[in-house]
Amino acid sequence: MRAAVVTELGAPLTIENLELPKPDFGEALVKLETSGVCHTDLHAAHGDWPVKPTPPFVPGHEGYGTVVDVGDGVDDLKVGDKVGNAWLWSACGHCEYCRTGWETLCEQQRNGGYTVNGSFGSYMLVNAAYAPRIPDGLDPVEVAPIL
Prior knowledge:
It is a single chain. The chain has 147 residues and is α+β, with helices and mostly antiparallel strands. It has a single domain (23-41, 58-146), classed as Quinone Oxidoreductase, Chain A, domain 1, CATH 3.90.180. The chain has three helices and eight strands, in the order E-E-E-H-E-E-E-H-E-E-H. A hairpin with an 8-residue loop joins strand 1 and strand 2 (14-17). The protein starts with a strand and ends with a helix. The mean pLDDT is 96.
C-alpha cells in the first residue's frame, strides 16, 4: 500500500510502499476513500508537542473508508461497513479516567496518526471499538474533517 510517512520529525513526508497491515484481535482493515488534514497532523509531523511520536509513522486521524477485513473478536463491524478513524484510537478502559468518561486523559491511550499509523495512506487499521460507523449517503469529503 502507498502512504505518506513521517521518517524524521520536521522533514517533508515521503511517499512509500508499505506492507498491507493485517488486522489483529479487535481491529479492522479499512480501504480509505478520503482523509482530512487536521492541524494536529502537522503538529505530529513536526514534533511540536512535549510527547513526540516515534518515526516512522503515517499521520492522519480524519480518514473515511470501507472495511475490507476484520480480525478475531470483531462483532460490530463487517466487510462493507463505512467507518472513520478518530484521534482516540484506544484507551485502557479500566483507569479512573476511562471509568468516568474521560478516556482522552487515559495514560494508556493510543492515538490515530500519532502512536498508531493513521489515514494518510491507501489503507489503515482501526480499533473496531473506537471506529465510528458512517451512515450511507454521506459525502466522504464532508465527513472526514469532522472525525
